[in-house]
């Protein structure tokens, strides 16, 4: 199992400068939906974190975080996946990392179906097979493998839609405002 992590130089802004940047330009994020696949590449399980939110609620979340200055998309994916799922998760990044979709979030909820009151954000969304053992880290309470039908059923979707967004930096995104499990944190 992989135990290495991508080391990046400090490439992010101090909180006051981040706030100023958020008001002036889009911020780039990666989103990763961890999956277990069979030998033919069919999705058998979708991995979701369970995280406490700032308002005291608890919700399911996918892996999400900002891309740092001078960091490649692949490095950002690896960093966030190993940070949130543990060093033994063994994410299987493709040779050419291409998002399955790109989503823009806007501070104005009337602008699109995706809303982030803090910023204009661009989220590159990936499905990433996981070969190893996941042990949630950071502030996650647990990590669960659900069947694809469990993820899209009414109970999980409606539960997630009632959850508010996190406000802290580089946090996994709860399944809110995320048709198809996407959105930046």
Written account of the structure:
There is one protein chain. The protein is of the alpha+beta class. It has a single domain (25-174), classed as Nucleoside Triphosphate Pyrophosphohydrolase, CATH 3.90.79. The chain is built from four helices and seven strands, in the order αβββαβββααβ. The chain has helices at 15-22, 73-85, 148-152, 154-161, and strands spanning 27-37, 43-52, 58-66, 101-105, 121-129, 142-146, 173-174. Strands 1, 2, 3, 4, 5, 6 and 7 form a seven-stranded mixed β-sheet that branches. The longest helix has 13 residues, at 73-85.
Query: Can you name the CATH architecture?
Result: Alpha-Beta Complex
| Count of DSSP H/I helices | 4
* N- and C-termini, Cα separation: 28 Å
How many structural domains does the protein architecture include? 1
For this entry, give a set of tags.
single chain; 185 residues; alpha+beta; Nucleoside Triphosphate Pyrophosphohydrolase; 7-stranded mixed sheet; 4 helices; 7 strands; globular; disordered C terminus
């Amino acid at each position: 199992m992989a135990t290495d992590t991508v080391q990046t130089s400090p490439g992010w802004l101090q909180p006051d400068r981040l706030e100023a940047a958020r008001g002036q330009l889009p911020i780039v994020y990666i989103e990763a939906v961890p999956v277990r696949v069979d030998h033919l590449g069919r999705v058998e399980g979708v991995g979701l974190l369970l995280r406490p939110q700032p308002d005291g609620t608890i919700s399911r979340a996918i892996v999400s975080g900002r891309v740092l200055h001078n960091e490649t998309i692949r490095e950002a994916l690896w960093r966030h996946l190993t940070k949130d799922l543990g060093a033994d998760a063994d994410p299987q990044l493709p040779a050419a990392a291409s998002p399955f979709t790109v989503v823009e979030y806007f501070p104005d909820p009337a602008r699109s179906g995706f809303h982030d009151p803090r910023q204009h954000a661009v989220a590159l969304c990936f499905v990433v097979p996981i070969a190893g053992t996941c042990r949630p880290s950071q502030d996650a309470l647990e990590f669960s493998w659900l069947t694809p039908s469990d993820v899209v059923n009414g109970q999980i979707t409606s539960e997630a839609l009632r959850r508010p967004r996190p406000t802290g930096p580089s946090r996994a995104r709860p399944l809110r405002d995320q048709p198809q499990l996407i959105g930046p944190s």
